[in-house]
Amino acid sequence: MHAAADGGLARVRVPGGRLTATQLREIARASASYGNGVIELTSRANIQVRGLGPDGGFAARMADAGLLPSATHERVRNVLASPLTGLDGPGGGGIADVTPLVEELDRRLCARPALAALPGRFMFALDDGRGDVAGFDADSGILPTGPDEAAVLLAGADSGLRVPLGGAVTVLLAAADAFLAEQAAQDVTVWRVSELHDGPARIATRLRAVLAPPSGAAGPGSGGAVPEPGPGRAGGTGEAGGGTGPVRPRAAAFGPVGVVPGGDGARVALGVAVPLGRLTAEQAEALADAAAGGEIRLTPWRGAVLPGLRKDQVAGTAARLVAAGLVVDPDSPWIGVTACTGRPGCARSLADVQADAALVIALSGAAGPSGSPGPPDPDGPAGSRGATSPGGTGGAAPVAGRAPGTGTLPVHWAGCGRRCGRPRGRVADVVATGDGYRVELDGTGRACAGIEETAAAVAAARGDL
Ligand code: SF4
Predict the structure, then answer these.
(1) Which phi and psi (to 5°) does residue 247 adopt?
(2) Ligand 1 midpoint to CA 168 (Å)
(3) Phi, psi (deg, nearest 5) at residue 319
(4) What are 286-338's pLDDT values in tens digits?
(5) How far is CA 18 from the centre of its chain?
(6) Would 188 be classed as within a structural domain?
(7) Which of 40, 42, 50, 340 has the most ligand 1 atoms within 8 A of CB, as the residue to mutate?
(8) pLDDT tens string 106-129
(9) For residue 192, is it within any domain?
(10) Ligand 1: distance of its center to the CA of 175 in Å?
(11) How far is the CA of 431 from the centre of ligand 1 (A)?
C-alpha cells in the first residue's frame, strides 16, 4: 500500500497477466467495498486500486483469493508474458507456449529468499517468439528464436546468450542473481539493469561464468550449452524466429483487440480494450461473466484477452462487453490513448487528464460509448494492430476506415511534465500546463488554451488532419 492524494493505493502483481474469473470478480467486489471501485490496469499487466483506507481489508481479500501468495516476494513478482501465447496456434506468430514457464518462474522466484531483495521495478519478460513483449525493456527476459532455443534479453536487448527453452527460468533467475551481485560490486542502489554501469554486458559476463557448463557437464535445463550467437541475419530487426542471429526487440504499440483465431479452428480469443486502462467494478464483472474458459489475461497495453470462446458465443459476448463500455473494435478511437493518474489522484497534476482525454475522444466523433460499430466477425482476420504481427516489429500498422480525427499514433495525456505511464516509441504527448495543454510530437509542440483546440491538435498529431 502506498499513500496517494486520494487515499491508499494498492498494487497487486499478476504474473503473466493471468487471472481466473473468480479472482477478477473478487478484485471488483473488494475494490468497490474498500476503494473507489475502479481497477486500474498497469503497463506491466498488473492491477492497482485507489482510495483505500488503512485497515488492510482489501489486502486480506486479495490474499484469500490467492493473489498474494508470498508476502516477502509480492513486490518482485513482475512477470510479463505474451498474452496470446498458446492460444492462436502456429499461424499467430508465437513459437512456443510460455504459459508453463510463467508458472515455473513465479514459483521458483518466490522460493528464493535472496531474490526478495530485488527492486520493485525489476521486471521479467517471457515473450513467446512473436516479439510483442520482448521490447518492453524487461531487466531479464527471453525471446524464443526457434522451437527449443531462446535469446536471453537483458535490459530489453539481446545479450548474445542462447539457452534451451527448458532452461529459460534458470537463466532468468540467474540474471536476477547477477543483477544483485553487480549492484553490490558497484556499491550502488538502483532499480533497473540499465541503471548499472555497463549493466547488460557485466551481467552477461556473470551469466556465462555461472551457466557455461564445465567440459562434459550439462548446461541449464535440457542440457544445451550457452553458445555465442551466430552471424546476424540481413533484415533481422525485430525478428524472432528461424536462427540464432541477433534479435532487436521493439515494443508493440497496440495489444490484441477483436477476434483472434484459435490454433484449433474451433475456439477463438477475444481481445478487449479498456478505455484509459480503467475498469469499473461493473466492467470487471462483465469481463468475468464473459470468460468462457474461466480465464482472463491482462495485457501490458492495459487491456484483456478472453481465451476459449466458441465462435457462436462471440457476437453475444462482444455486445455485452460493448454495452458495459468496453471496446472490441480494433478501429475504435480509444485504441492507443493512455493517460496518467492526473487529478484527483496525483497531487502534482495540473488537470483531470482522464476526463479531458475522454472528452477529446467524444469530440472526435466516436460511434458510441466504446466507438464500436458492431459485433466482430469470428471468422474474420485477427483483430489486432501491431501486437500480433509475426516478427514483432511493433508499431502501428496502417488501418483503413477509422473514424475521422482518431489517427493511428499512440497519444499519452499527462498532468505534468513527468509523463508517468508514457508508452515506449513514437507517441504524441498531451501535457497539462495549468493554462491548457501542450501537444508535442517529435520535439515540436503547440500550446492549446481550450479543449477544442487541444482536440484539433491531438487529431493533427495522430495523423488524421
Ligand atoms: S505525470 Fe505528473 S500528474 Fe501524472 S501521475 Fe505522474 S506526477 Fe502525477
Answers:
(1) -115, 145
(2) 36
(3) -65, -40
(4) 999 999 889 999 999 999 999 999 999 999 999 999 999 999 999 898 999 99
(5) 12
(6) yes
(7) 340
(8) 999 999 999 999 999 999 999 999
(9) yes
(10) 32
(11) 10
Helices (H), 245-378: 281-290, 311-323, 353-363
pLDDT of residue 199: 97
Q: What is the DSSP letter of 137?
A: -
Percentage of the chain lying above the pLDDT 90 cut = 70
Q: Tell me, what's the pLDDT at 379?
A: 66
What pLDDT does 237 receive?
Answer: 32
Question: DSSP assignment of 65-98, as one string?
Answer: TT----TTTGGG--EEE-TTTTTS-GGGS-SS--
121 in a structural domain: yes
The count of domains in the chain is 1
Q: Does residue 342's CB lie within 6 angstroms of at least one atom of ligand 1?
A: yes
- pLDDT at residue 235 greater than cutoff 70: no
**Which residues span the domain enclosing 117?**
95-128+137-250
Look at residue 221 and tell me if it is in a domain: yes
- Using a 10 angstrom Cβ sphere, with 0-12 exposed, 13-18 middle and 19 or more buried, the burial of residue 6 is middle
Using a 10 angstrom Cβ sphere, with 0-12 exposed, 13-18 middle and 19 or more buried, the burial of residue 125 is buried
**Which cell is 151 given?**
535469446
Is there an atom of ligand 1 within 6 Å of 345 CB? no
Helix (H) or strand (E) holding 205: helix 199-211
C-alpha cell at 370: 466504446
Residue 354 CB–ligand 1 contact under 6 Å: no
